[in-house]
Known about the structure:
There is one protein chain. By secondary structure, this protein is α/β, with parallel strands linked by helices. It has a domain at 242-386. Helices cover 31% and strands 11% of the residues. It has helices at 51-55, 107-114, 141-144, 148-167, 171-179, 190-201, 221-224, 228-240, 267-281, 314-322, 346-353, 364-369, 376-386, and strands spanning 66-67, 73-74, 207-209, 243-246, 249-253, 262-265, 286-292, 328-336, 357-362. Helix 6 (190-201) crosses helix 8 and helix 9 (267-281) packs parallel to helix 10 (314-322).
Amino acid sequence: MRPDTPDTLPSRSTSPELGSPSLKQLYNQKTGRPIRRSAGHIKSLAGFVDSAILDDDDDEPIEMPWEDEDGEIVRQPRSKKRKRSPSPPPPPLDPIIYDEAVDELSDDDLVGHNSDSNTSVTLQFNIPLGFHGPLVVKVDRSLLTRNTEGVAHDMHKRKMRKQFKSATPNLEIQETALAVKKTGFCDLPPELRNKIYRHVFVVDNGFRFPVPSSKTVSCSSQFLRTCRLVHSEGCSVLYGENNFSFDRNRTTRGTFWDPVPKEIGYKDIRQFLKMIGPENLAYLREIKLVFEDANQSSTPYIHSHEERRYLNDEHLIDCLRILRTAKLRKLTVCFLGRRALTMADVKFVDYLERIKADEVLASEYAKYLYTNKIHSSAWEYLKEHMTRKKKLYVRE
């Protein structure tokens, strides 16, 4: 078999087995970089439109540059220059007013201007020709320093009276209508106002905590918001002429995320004493305190009976701490705990003896049925130290 010679070798252009020369990567002879033949010739996919064409219909399609065989970038010049959109016309200018009228001065401006002591006074003298004698000018000082405010007020009053006379022909009716003054609640005598306060705020049996379901504590609170005078006088009657009874609330209450609702106890009483403030707290004259332990059914989260005693209730201790500043006339106490109160309960006795009143009594309910709930020595000690030595109130 004859060997292949260069003349007999198959041509690259005619041999599909050796590959087509058009698919061979061409390189730039100067830079050595590959030549991209597809630059500027890639067509967009079917169904898609360039967003630059949609923005402005007057713009020409963008022509991408491409590279030739020598590696030079070829750019085709645009056949049409883009037109600039005309600028919007400026807003019309306001008309020029050459002769603008001056605003009239109000009464306040006139009074303030004339009342200035440093305002200069200009005097003009027209002296005839041929006058050689001395010129003497005398100016009354009262004319320069008169109260223009009173003058302006009199002028305004005179103007209003003139308008009123033109509307009402009878002069006597005019003078009477001008002198009429509306009478309100605060214009009443204090004796009448106090009777109204007692009729609205005073309750026969007083207020009791916890509040029974058939009653309410609110007593026309909108009336107290009328003015400062009504609030001050009404609160003195509301808190000073009513008696308040504070007992333990055995019902439970809790938020929706608490797994076990807790007993209210003395929480509402503590909130009430803090809410009324020190001024209304000083108005309290007669209160009753009932000391009672918590029940096991309402406090399953407490594991010992000692913790259920009122001696260890922090809310009750805080109530006693607040009542130290009250100016009480009569204080009634009732002890209903599981065990009798003794002098060994130093902490509770110390807080309780700091409350002062002109008269300290034991509740009748505790006196006959639960006489063993407080030791006799403890009661004698508390009664002696809680009773005010110098009476603050005098009995009528």
